Amino acid sequence: MSQPQSHTSIYGYFKWSFIVTVVGLLLGAALGWQSTGTIGGMLTIFFICAVLAVLEISLSFDNAIVNANKLKDMTPVWQHRFLTWGILIAVFGMRIVFPLLIVVVAAGIGPVDAIVLAASRPEEYARIMNDAHLPIAAFGGTFLMMVGLTYFFNHEKDIHWISIIEKHMSRYSTIKGIEIAFVLLLVLLFSSMLEGEDADTFVMSAIYGLLTFLAVELVGGLLDASQKTMTEVARGGLGAFIYLEVLDASFSFDGVIGAFALTQNLFVIAIGLGIGAMYVRSMTIMLVEKETLTHYRYLEHGAFYAILILSVIMYVQTLYHIPEVITGLGGATLIGISLWSSLRYNKQERQRETDLARGQI
């Protein structure tokens, strides 16, 4: 859906993110003072909150770009709903409720008991979260891999960044189910490297991730097919809203689990990742309103390559530990290279237009 390009300043887009950052870091410092009673403890919690925020932002560059790609085709009403309700779900649902639900299911205790456990026995809470890492990585990795492959296995895709790869993927996209077959082969490969119950858990979790992706796609397809009998608001993006929420959840898995490497305090994690989530929201709005994806033709490609890399890393993390900084830097590097390629392409196009005007071509 086309809309006038915004002239809002960079500060205008990130104003609320800056405010949330200040409030969040102050809350982190207060929590550190309350829990330790020392200046050193207060500064430590303050620093951890800041690091977690940076970690979340670095892991979510590609999330913001993919969100913007989907949002640009939604009606303003549904855009607003995602950027208000959606961000609340992302911050409170994935950064607070999701870790609690994992402990509730894994430990077989009630939600209130899980909160008490997080507050009184953080080391036990962190152990349960870490034990749940394998099924989470398999589920999230599978969902994200399908997101990335579906973008490239598309016969209508005519703009290619890494042509030697993308042209072949576009050509073979006419083979029905090729993305699913590829993912299932990878699932079998990685499960063969695991043993016993871990292998079974990996396969089952990966299948649930695949089914979730297909279910979300099915809902979107049904909404599109029924558009003639739906209101304009409903046509504008209910399916896309659901898709983006599940996508955000998959992106959040890695950050939430990785945060426990820095602290075992659920509330510190919620503050740090919540700050980062606000920046993702601000980046998403800026990308949509300034039509950044239109001006930088390969930026979207870089984001989806980063998604594929992240999905593979989540699979590999079921076998080996990979520091979250590597995950974040890997995605940011790919997006940076795609931005550079876009700028170079724009420069070449401007030169070509100049040469045409001068009659040199």
Automatic annotation (TrEMBL):
Coiled coil: none
Domain of life: Bacteria
Pfam family, one: DUF475
Keyword Membrane assigned: yes
Transmembrane region(s): 12-33, 39-61, 82-112, 132-153, 174-194, 206-226, 233-253, 259-281, 302-320, 326-343
Record keywords: Membrane, Transmembrane, Transmembrane helix
Protein name, UniProt field: Membrane protein
Organism of provenance: Pseudorhizobium pelagicum
